[in-house]
Amino acid sequence: MTASALPETIDATAALLASGDYIAERGLATAVFLALRMGRPLFLEGEAGVGKTEIAKVLAATLDRPLIRLQCYEGLDIASAVYEWNYSRQMIEIRLAEASGSASRDALAKNIYSEPFLIRRALLQALQGEPGKAPVLLIDELDRTDEPFEAYLLEVLSDFQITIPELGTIKAPEPPIVIMTSNRTREIHDAVKRRCLYHWVDYPTAAREREILARKVPHAAARLSDEVVAFVHALRAMDLFKAPGVAETIDWSNALTELDQTSLDPEVIDNTLGVLLKYQDDIARVKGSEAARLLEEVRAGVGAAG
């Protein structure tokens, strides 16, 4: 069984993403379209919670391809990201051979460094996908890794191949769709970026965020959705340590509907700010009189728009 065909136009790409409940602005849809058509990795930067990771998930679902995710972190190495040898199984094989006396040293060495003893991690799995159904490879939060790991990625991104000294070079029969994300906690090396198409994923406009809520939280009251979006946009205009992303907007809307809210009020805002904001200093700054003031502005704006 082959995967779904790649979209032929930017509009078809936007429609493909929308079929997975991802509402993309034109620039993002263009970047995804070009990455798919040109077979180039797509490097996405932006604040946490704006939907970078979700793009890979939606592409995997809508194109009917496996999603392979490499979650990056400080100290990530080849053994965790690419491959390692199954040392415990190799030791068992060695002891069985010694006990039976049936294998020469050279034959044993060749045997234990073969495919059955290889543990494939995310990057190697992504290069060994089925023909006609290459996976979507998500390299998430690359900015959390160390620079030496970035250097290792160059071979993977340049030629879609990995060299294993004991086995040789393994090259992808069909390159995976590669989505890389960064929250920009540090700059990624230019050599990696040059091998990718780039797009900055920004916070959505109010109209697009309302459309996102209509998809993700369809059971929310229309007035509640309007007020939630307006309140979140007001918070993003403040100098907070961490402004709420789209993910937090969706979570907050879901939480408010669980509380049977059809509109915002000062008390419910104060009681649920922990869903929206993740730092106590931000919560303390907004809670109380500031939240009430923002709500008055929101109500005035929503009322005028209505």
Structure description:
Helix content is 51%, strand content 12%. The protein has a five-stranded parallel beta sheet with strand order 2-5-8-1-9. Strands 3-4 form a two-stranded antiparallel sheet. By secondary structure, it is of the alpha/beta class. The chain folds into three domains: 10-79 and 121-200, P-loop containing nucleotide triphosphate hydrolases (Rossmann fold), CATH 3.40.50; 83-115, no CATH class; 206-295. The N and C termini lie far apart (50 Å). Helix 11 packs across helix 12. A hairpin with a 3-residue loop joins strand 6 (161-164) and strand 7.
Compact summary:
The chain is α/β, with parallel strands linked by helices and 306 residues long. Helix content is 51%, strand content 12%.
Q: What is the CA-CA span between the terminal residues? A: 50 Å
How many strand elements? 9
- Categorize the overall geometry: elongated
Helical segment count: 15
H/E element order: HHEHEHEHHEHEHEEEHEHHHHHH
Radius of gyration: 24 Å
Helical content stands at: 40-55%
Mean pLDDT: 92
Q: How many domains, as an integer? A: 3
Largest sheet: 5 strands, parallel
Low-confidence stretches: none
